TrEMBL record, chain A:
Molecular function via GO: ATP binding; ATP hydrolysis activity
A matching Pfam family: ABC_tran
Keyword field: ATP-binding, Nucleotide-binding, Transport
UniProt-listed CDD domains: ABC_Mj1267_LivG_branched (cd03219)
Keyword Transmembrane: no
Name of the protein in its database record: Urea ABC transporter ATP-binding protein UrtD
Domain of life: Bacteria
Classification via PROSITE patterns: ABC_TRANSPORTER_2
Organism of origin: Donghicola mangrovi
Keyword ATP-binding listed: yes
InterPro entries per UniProt: AAA+_ATPase, ABC_AA/LPS_Transport, ABC_transporter-like_ATP-bd, ABC_transptr_urea_ATP-bd_UrtD, P-loop_NTPase
Automatic annotation (TrEMBL), chain B:
Annotated compartments: Cell membrane
Membrane is among the record's keywords: yes
Organism encoding this protein: Donghicola mangrovi
A Gene Ontology term for the protein's cellular component: plasma membrane
Entry protein name: Urea ABC transporter permease subunit UrtC
Membrane topology category: Multi-pass membrane protein
Amino acid sequence: MSTLLEVSGVSVSFDGFKAINNLSFQIGKAEMRAVIGPNGAGKTTFMDIITGKTKPDEGRVIWGDRSISLLGMSEAKIAQQGVCRKFQKPTVFEDQSVCDNLMMALKRRRSVWDVLKYRPAADIARLEQLADEIGLLGEFNRQSGELSHGQKQWLEIGMLLAQDPKLLLVDEPAAGMTPSEREHTTNLLVEAAKTRAVVVVEHDMEFIRRLNCKVTVLHEGSVLAEGSLDHVTSNQEVIDVYLGR
Amino acid sequence: MGKSFIKNHPTLLIFLALLALFTLGVTIMSEAYGTAFISTSFVKTLGKTLCLCLVAIAMDVVWGYAGILSLGHFAFFGLGGYMVGMWLMYERTQEVVLRSLENQVIPPTETEISDAIATQIFGVVGSADFPLIWSFAHSLTLQLILVVAVPGLLALVFGWLAFRSRVTGVYLSILTQAMTLALALYLFQNDSGLRGNNGLSGLQNLPHVTAPQSEISMWFLWASAAALGLGYLFFTMMLTGKFGMVVKGIRDNEQRVRFLGYEVEHYKLFLFTVTAIVAAVAGALYYPQAGIINPAEIMPIASIYLAVWVAIGGRGRLYGAVIGAAFVSLLSTWFTGGQAPDIPLGFYTISWVDWWQVLLGISFVLVTLYAPKGIGGLFDLLKCKEVQK
């Protein structure tokens, strides 16, 4: 399996505090990966670096078949490469309808000029299909601000799928969901991981067990352990710093 | 533009119809073409108000839709006025100079004419030479291009620097205000080339036109109404569809739009520049009706008023900006024009010329606190009632 993203030797510090310390990470083209770690382990900063929000002090972030560096690219350029991110708090555009949200996310050319002359007619069917996939077809023209918490989460996942990303970065997708909503979310993510790389940051062990994938444990800004969930949970260091608490 | 476009924008059709009706009404009641029910000076006030409505919708697009609280759009408005004012003043002065030299025995040379014009225009600031920036003042076409080019270029360069450095929110407001202040202070100087604090005057006299002011004022009212209608249509079309969605997305969550792959800075820069150009066009139509432009017009307070109009009228809807600008600026004319009756309290007399600004300030605070949707929000209430029925 060829590598999609390779992060190597990355460090970043904020005011002397090393948030990420010589971190290395790899993920293949169609792979699910869970990232766990205690608060302050650097999970969010790790995502910030990949998506271009934070520039690392050192290290490399190499992307795709042509091995291009993501460092120095703007957030928008990185997103156009196919790196998509879902935030911990559902962030959809609440003032706009489900359809509008999906239309903005749909993979089309993003320049001012292209967007000005964009005509939606040809894409409506695709948008409805997407809404159906995330179970929101009934709410297609509703303001997304009126949706329930779980529905907003799905809408956001739908927006990620609409971008047809190569890499999905998902921050705590199951937070605040009911058990049945969780199951739906798990299915969406597992389905997505069949064709693309998915990185899930999650605290909930039960949720990770259901994802049934390789787990990376972060601690103090670097990788502490990597492997199956059973493998890492039996690791004494991991138990000490994370599970034991 | 198909039927569905109009169907999706009922307010556009209503607005254009009302604007046409208004223009027709003023024409019928004007001194020049109708019953002389409305004085020429009031026609000018109405024409100027239309220009203010146009700059207000530009402000609404940049602030209400994109969330960029610019305190510089009245500077672009003023620059537009200056650019057209230069031609008006040059051409008019040339006309006067040529007439006075007509009867001389020896025909005047080109240089003599040019010197005479320069002395006429710049004598007031103690100069008799044309500054470099007046190089194109003899040509209406070139000056009209400059109406668009100068403010457009200033907005493009300023916006590029500001947005590239990711200056947002109140910091951007302060930065644009600083730009406006710097521009005004520069223009106040006598050697700025634009006659310092005297500004440009006599702009109401169109060169080579013998028609009376009553007719000229109507021409400008028609032009202003057309510009407002076109501006309204232009922005409605622009903000319909995906572009409008992205712009509103930038207002609500800029970072999220970035992670969707849109270069937020490009969108902001585009909007900032386009609205600056529209503001400049509005200014170019306004000042020939006002007759005079000076640097005091573009002091930051003017841009703050602009924001107040849009806030009172209702942000994020174009007709709200029009209502706010028309309502507040006409009310302001009424209060400060000495027509409002003073209120004698016995021990103190409230004279509205002084107290109007206090009233405006209080209403701004009240609107911000209790009616963030402004006057335009009233239409939502009406719509809600209809739905309930």
